[in-house]
Design brief:
Helix 1 runs antiparallel to helix 3. This protein has 4 helices and no strands. With 100 residues, the protein is mainly alpha-helical.
Length: 100
Amino acid sequence: MLKLIEGGLSQSKTQAAGEKEQIQAEGQRRMRQAGVDRFLAREKLTGIAMPSTIRVFMLQVEFAVEALSRLSPIPSNIMDDGYWPTCNRAAPFEAALIRR
């Protein structure tokens, strides 16, 4: 007879969905705190491109949300800064490009 292996089914689907929503909310909070939404709105309304540091930060946060959502099990301390990029890390890179 065949037996169903239930290795990853120990966590309920509703609990996992709630944790993924929490990760997405944390990513949105961090982007809002960095002002990404203001720069996106400005870019759409005026055509002025958002600063590359902000765009890089936005992409890093989106990547972190995707990567953290795929972890099994999702760590309980998911809101700690160690899991997330900071906007300040991208600033020296842009300054080096401007000096050239």
